[in-house]
Design a protein that fits this description.
By secondary structure, the protein is an alpha/beta fold. It contains nine helices and six strands; from the N terminus they run αβαβαβαβαβαβααα.
């Protein structure tokens, strides 16, 4: 929280305003332009809410141009260059919601984006714009929200509603941290992998 507060005070456009972040690659598969469109719709509902995208990639210029065209760049939509891994926790600590997006193609739903796990580990509610196993986990655990990939207005309304609900933010943040500790901690994943390998070995031994 302290790191998050330090990060917030660096930027006059942020201060204590609600913050949605995206930390990662601006690649074709990531479909980050979605967030510029959502930011436009959000600005009409609550212009105080801030979007911050941290990273770089092939579509960085395209996203920036789109945000400029939509009139949100430097208003409620901000972009920063990639940060060192050690600085990312401060961004996530400052965030009220962290996002992970992909283009609207079913084959992208089974991605395992680091940003998803990083957000959970930091106890930050997660918003994604696709179905698949991550959507199932968020719905089941209450650690975040699944936004509609096509309906920008609905996605904007859901984000605003979530940000205006401090109790939900707290519950979702706790659920995110719990998920990270019980489902995705390295030690747990390592033990599961070890068990899978042991099962394979014992199955092979049995067949001999």
């Amino acid at each position: 929280a302290e790191y998050g507060q330090e990060f917030r005070t660096k930027y006059s456009w942020l201060a204590q305003r609600p913050l949605i972040v995206y930390v990662g690659t601006f690649g074709m598969i990531n479909g980050v332009s979605y967030l510029a469109q959502v930011a436009k719709a959000v600005s009409a509902i609550d212009p105080d809410i801030r979007f911050l995208l941290v990273g770089t990639g092939k579509e960085e210029a395209m996203v920036k141009n789109l945000a400029q065209e939509l009139g949100v760049l430097g208003q409620n939509f901000f972009m920063l260059p990639p940060m060192a891994k050690k600085d990312i926790p401060a961004v996530l600590s400052a965030a009220d919601i962290a996002t992970s997006t992909v283009i609207d193609i079913k084959e992208t739903w089974n991605n395992s984006a680091n940003k998803f796990f990083d957000a959970l580990a930091s106890g930050t509610p997660v918003a994604i714009n696709h179905e698949g196993w991550q959507a199932d986990i968020l719905r089941k655990s209450g650690a975040g929200i699944v936004l509609d990939a096509q309906n920008i207005q609905q996605a904007a309304e859901e984000l605003v509603s979530a940000l205006h609900d401090p109790e939900w933010l707290q519950r979702a943040g706790c659920a995110a941290r719990q998920l990270a500790q019980t489902e995705f901690a390295r030690e747990i994943l390592a033990k599961r992998l070890e068990q899978v390998l042991l099962n394979v070995v014992s199955e092979k031994e049995r067949r001999k």
